[in-house]
């Protein structure tokens, strides 16, 4: 089946949830809204492969943004328009909190700067993401003059239409997955993160998808080291609003785990993925940081002060190996780019997968096509929902582990297989041969970690003997 066939099937099976990936850049400049908002609008008005209809759809999206998107410097003008007209349509991001004293939901509009708008509880139950990070929407604001001289806001919501995924029917997605073969679905996922799958062989496709495992599998510890320009950090920076990328420099225990002064939970409690880019430049200002990382990467929990807390963030470490891999292996090991304090055997043994970045091709323009893929926000939400599930016991249906694997090895392999199954077979249907393929791939990545542990030990021994 060609990429055109996959495109057409995606349009038919997921109407309004797929978008042609090259269209976003055409309207991105001049409008400071997230890519996933633009993709959502394009998915609503440009879900077709007919060029004439695409042009009309793009024109419509541009009109909507031009007419209703509120720039912060226009906020007072817009409020005046609401007052004078009685009603005015805007595009803005709305966050909602529960005011315990008033026993009411209160909304804030990011660009308009409104912070005390009462929100109907039915709207909150329809769109639960309002309470968890906010929702971009097309909103009809109405003016409420009866609220003058009272604590209540002069503005209210008359109608609310989300322009990002505000709820997700995971069962529907699982059911529609059955319309695709495994290879078609793999291509659609690659197209969803912006790649043209026809540019890669089967091995390269699986390597690219393995980068998504931390997004779909909780408490997954992943490392990828390789040449520059292979897109190691792209996924965690651009594709999911639930991952954060930290580029080198100093970080602290308070930032990562818990600030004892404020009681504020750190990054591991607020993000699904905490990714460290340019890991060689990473420095910790706290002496206990590496020990806390070891504890967290082992159990998903950490102690700070008198409390023991748990979190579900996956940990990703990406960086560059500037020398030829064979040359590195002659004199050193594949964790050499790590900071010295992180070349700790116990820490390294916590990694579930080491992806060989030197096998990933460097990014070229022909790797990015005009195929259809899931809207970024839809993709990010369904992989996030799948974090709540686990397929780690599926291996037991067909295979048994040998005695040469210890408990940590087995856990690593199970988590990698679980992640691949959730990505490629969310509906729970797969063959024994497919399961064997994922199992061998998972064992390869864990074996690479174990081999380097032995090599680090030998390198350290040689250094002591000199």
UniProtKB/TrEMBL annotation:
GO terms for molecular function: peptidase activity. This is ATP-dependent Lon protease. GO terms for biological process: proteolysis. Keywords: Hydrolase, Protease. Signal peptide: none annotated. Residues 13-143 form the BREX system Lon protease-like BrxL N-terminal domain. The keyword Cell inner membrane does not apply. It comes from the Archaea. InterPro entries: BrxL, BrxL-like, BrxL_N, P-loop_NTPase.
